[in-house]
Amino acid sequence: MKPAKIARLLDRLTERGLKLAQQVDADRPGQSPVELSALPNELRRGDGSSAYSAPGAARYVTPDHVKAERQLAKAGYARGAAVMSPTDVQAFVKRLAADGLELGDDQAAAVRGILTSGAKVETLIGPAGTGKSRVVGALAKAWEDPDLWDGEQRRMIGLAASQVATEVLAADGVTAKNITRWLMTQQRLTDGSTTPEDQAWALRAGDLVVVDESAMANTSDLSQIQAQCDAAGAKLLLVGDHRQLAAVGAGGGMELVTAGALTHELTETRRFVAAWEGPASLRLRQGDEGVLAEYHKQGRILDGGHLEAAQRSAADAWLADHLNGLHALLIVDTNAQAAELSAQLRARLIEYGQVDDERTTWLASSGNRVGAGDLIQTRLNAWHLNGYRGNTRAAFNRDEFKVVEVLADGGLRVAPLIRGTRHPAPGETMVLPASYVRDWVALGYAATVHSSQGLTVDSSHLVATQNTSVYALYVAMTRGRAANTAHVVTQSLSKEAEYGQTAAAAKRTPLSVLRGAFELDDPQLSALQAAAESAAEADRLRTPAELLADGIALATAGRTATWLDELTHAGALTADQRSALAVEDGAGTLDNLLRRVELAGHDPGQVLTEAIQRRSLHDARQISNVIQERIKQSGKYDPIGDTYTDRLPQVDDPKWSAYLANLAAAADTRTEELGDQVAAELPQWAIEAFDWPPTDHGPERDKWIRRTGVVAAHREVMNHDASDDALGPAPKPGQVEQYASWRAAWRALGRPEADRAEAELSNGQLRVRVRAYEREKAWAPPYVAEELAGTRQAAERERRTAALRLAEADASDDAATRERLRTEAEQAKALATALDARAAELQIADDARAVWLAHTAETRAVADRAKLELDARGIDNSDDGPTPEELLDSIDADDADADEHREVTDEHELADVAEQRDTDIALAVPADEFVEAAPVNDQPASKEAEPDAAASDIPDAEIVADDNTRPAQASAEVAEAAEDEAAEDPAGLESQAPADIREVAAGEVPIAESDTPRVPSADETAEAVRRAQRALIEIQHRRAAEEHHADAEAEARAEELARWHADDTNAEQANTATATAADHAADYPGPVMELGRYDDE
């Protein structure tokens, strides 16, 4: 058939297929048929479609697939499965612990929940290394124990997408089958099969069906499994992790079920040897790209350079682990790369005498040869091999073997490897026929990430490229117990690049390459989830707001140039000045500034004219900068307008004006909807910011809804979801439209001082806040992340070198060469040990820096807000004046110049002046100095303290450098020791710390921060530790002072309350006494004279 006819046939078939499917994606604002007709020509393609719609990006789904997904989605709500009593479950868990199988808290909770829920469909989510296999094994033991079911025998059946995963289930004691074969069996049973083999797999009421790695099962298979379970009255448990690699076919089924079903999630990682790696892996799973810094610091992210170098680095690392007896994985992107690296490693193993290259056979699938000693992997399930030439088992896809013998016909005698190791099963071999070997066997030294998922090994080495997704990165970096390392390709060539251009390729950092993996975070969603997300995204305010911001930029792009041309024509600008403006870098920001002027309610063209005409520009070096500065100085241009419609620009083109008005109306409608939504849901931020809404419908409630809607609109535009912060930080000055939205929300909140305090400060006050943090930075423990990374990487390189040199020595026939290689190996081991000790010292500094960062967080946040405000004002935060010392030197110089002309004053007059000055100084009170974190030790040290007490507790640099026995937890011990000293001897600690650490540190030579991994010298390491220990002591001083101050305040408050109570009591007693006296006075008739009493006198 001719190419033209093929193209026409494909078009026709596509048209017919689309008629049978439905579109998943919702129309975005501006893309409905009516709106497309009003689209400006600049936003149209040649076919009339919108420029914002990606060609070929539309997604479609068949009605049958939607039906299957809906069936899965609602299955999670069903109840009625077998239930075990909580008492029996608790006793079962205790019995497991007594038998040596102790479950973690999260594992035990999952077992209890699944056995007692009664749900027909549940999910168990197990991130890598959390021990979901142990939970499945425990469930199998409980479900199949008749004593726990009143004598009734129940069954647990395991299913998995791959045969390798099926074998893993079987190893855990579960009767298992792969999904494809199980579904085929169920179909035969439906068709009436009565064979014992099929009948053994017939479902019964009360059975538990477990689908392992269910995220890798396609939705159609899961739907069929659920239907079979539902029809038989069996319970279905989906086990896996939807944050790992998804199904090859239509996926998203597990996540779809998880959204509605009872879900149990394991939270504690148990696989990793290093304590930091478990929490880091969970952060990686959540897509937190900040965790890359932790992996880098631990030496797990290597700069591989170009692809070949990265592959060589990973291959060397794998080979060293293999030679050391570890089960290691070498993970690459494609099967072709795996074949290439496997061939290279085979050649190295031949050199070391571990693989035979004399008698080999050909592997047509990869183009390699294989001999005795090679590790191989089968690529096709071959059930027919069970019984072939005495075989007792079949060969399955991704099975691993070690070649024992190459047969004369090209077949192989192989030994299956013990699962999870590289060791052959003792006494067990099987034969692979030559035809199978030729077409379905590959060398097993390297593999793809898909074939690695589900495996647990000793170490893993990934060749990471710019195409590596976050899911692949997560899987690859969680396979190894002891180590998981990424060898990153940082110099990538395009497919069109010619040979020899590698050196000219742009160089990136390893972290920047891996951050791209998070941008490729594109999970495989079900059709229902994809449709829901698309509809939600189309309804979000962010969609019309971003289209509106882009449209405004396009619609107003040429008007500044038009105004400048008009001013040139009018003579306000010369032709040379206009030409200079057209090429200056600042010309682009002038558009943004004039838009800010317009948003503030001014005429941007008029403001521009006035700025240019204010005075001549003939001596301006950067005309655009001068114009902008004049505009900024002419007024404070804060945006006005509470709605998007209020903030529309003046546009002459009616089509653009109508397009922008439609988008603004859509944004305002969504704002109103958000206000109603907030009133219904009453989130924390709204209650704290606006109080509770009026209950009566009327103007006050409408006002409450309108104001909260404006704030909720800005939150949605900026994707700000903090529950305890209504507004979030102000956008950067260049984000003109977003800043206008922020200002509107700020006004709706009632101009809160907490969010706008910086606006009321002067430039000098803002600079003080910035410099307060700069002073804190002076005594910060040094940043040693790159040194840590470099030292740990160097230690691993030396260990790798030692393993390779020993292998080379064993393979050498020359005694002198063997001795030399073994000496080099021992030297490499010794150097690795020394580097480990240095890394432990550097860890002290790194831990101390983390403590310092937490301690100064508030000061840093204040400084950051001050910087933002200075940037918004267009103020350069650099020093703009002389230092006090420079100012004093200048005054002294002026005084010296004026001395020869100065009038001489009599001595008695100077004495009067000196006396008055001494009096003034004596009466002076020092002013409070604004600092963000005042030192706790401004007071002089006690006189009893030894002058060099501080030095006595801080190790000398030489001592620290030579102490290779210091444990890794030294940093924690330093902190604890500092806390103990602060509690037991505050006076002693006071004598150790300098009068003001900020002043002392400011006078020291700063330690330069490296931006690439490096190994520091012993002296550099010692100095870093010294400064770290000093910082920890200072922090303990400050904490002790803060606690003392808090205690003093509490004591003073208690005394004040006691005094108030005493005063109230005394006043009450006095009032009572006064009242009593008054009562007595009322009853008293007055004095009575006793006659005759004084008669004798």
UniProtKB/TrEMBL annotation:
Keyword Amino-acid biosynthesis: no
Name of this protein: AAA domain-containing protein
Pfam families: AAA_30
Region: Disordered, residue numbers: 932-953, 965-994, 1039-1097
Coiled-coil boundaries: 818-845
Comp. bias intervals (Low complexity): 1067-1079
Biased composition (Basic and acidic residues): 1039-1064
